[in-house]
Amino acid sequence: MTPPKIFITRLIPDPGLLLVKENFQADIWPHELPPTRVQLIERSRHVEGLLCTLTERVDAELMDVMGPQLKVISSMSVGVDHIDVAAATARKIPVGNTPGVLTDATADQAFALLLAAARRITEAERFVRAGRWVTWIPNLLLGADLAGATLGIIGFGRIGQAVAKRAQGFDMRVIYYSPSAQPAYGAQPVGLDSLLRESDFISLHVPLTAETKHLVNADFLAKMKPNAILINTTRGPVLDQEALYQALKTKQIQAAALDVTDPEPLPMNSPLLELENCLIVPHLGSASKKTRDMMSLLAAQNLVAGLKGERLPNCVNPQVY
Ligand code: GLV
């Protein structure tokens, strides 16, 4: 029997690579930068298994290139908006992702951004590096308090709840908007308009779907408090960046902290980069060593299970079974 052809699109951390290598021979993209679309199509031809990350668009065209022997698509990510899951389901291909293992790291990142924006940490650091620290000044770079402030969480799944848990320790009042989620960690469910009206901080935790694209638009921003700070650790397109730029520039809202942008990377000529009240980091929500190790392992477990014809440990389209 010929061994299955497998393509791993990135150099994922060792735990995942070792598991794949113990079971199969795989074609592993060796470069730090991802394959281009043309390279991806070329290397994916006739594979039985694909292990990708969120930088690869896995659409119907690519699935057709992979061919009818394709058994599994496994992504080292919790988000699967880069994969046409409906097209995979129509072809009876299970799609795996890596939820759970990155909950704490992503909630930590959301909270790090919340604190950094509240206390203007990156702005203050730029101030020091620019040689502008002359003396202690009573009014210098004043920020916002967390204790007693209201945090509004949009999307109250695993990560949203983990953010609420952290906020409890900072004596924040927590409200959330998430139609089907049960209350947890002292957070109270509210309607979206109430959340926008009452929150001093808003943290986004909804996946990117057709319904959540540009959820944060001019109308949403206009309903926020003028002192409010917006944190986005989910996906860039959940937010209309042009509307956000206007709201930040005109101080309609206080500040934003973005782990994700649209597109990624954010072009260096993006007007957002001119704003002192916009903090931007390069999509690092799950970027702790332990978390990325666990993500790579889970992605490899999904891949190996799919290739062996077993049920994936984490399958986003279980209706294929
Ligand atoms: C990161 O953004 C992920 O979806 O895992």
Description:
This protein has 321 residues and is α/β, with parallel strands linked by helices. It folds into two domains: 6-101 and 290-320, Rossmann fold (3-Layer(aba) Sandwich), CATH 3.40.50; 103-280, NAD(P)-binding Rossmann-like Domain (Rossmann fold, 3-Layer(aba) Sandwich), CATH 3.40.50. It has helices at 14-23, 37-44, 60-66, 85-90, 103-118, 121-129, 158-169, 192-198, 218-222, 241-249, 289-307, and strands at 6-8, 27-28, 49-52, 72-75, 95-96, 150-154, 173-177, 188-189, 201-204, 229-232, 255-258, 278-280. The protein has a seven-stranded parallel beta sheet with strand order 8-7-6-9-10-11-12, with helices on both faces. Strands 2-1-3-4-5 form a five-stranded parallel beta sheet. The mean pLDDT is 97. Glyoxylic acid is lined by residues 54, 77-79, 102, 285-286.
Architecture blueprint of SSEs:
Elements: E1 6-8, H1 14-23, E2 27-28, H2 37-44, E3 49-52, H3 60-66, E4 72-75, H4 85-90, E5 95-96, H5 103-118, H6 121-129, E6 150-154, H7 158-169, E7 173-177, E8 188-189, H8 192-198, E9 201-204, H9 218-222, E10 229-232, H10 241-249, E11 255-258, E12 278-280, H11 289-307
Parallel strand pairs: 1-2, 1-3, 3-4, 4-5, 6-7, 6-9, 7-8, 9-10, 10-11, 11-12
Helix pairs in contact: 1-11, 5-7
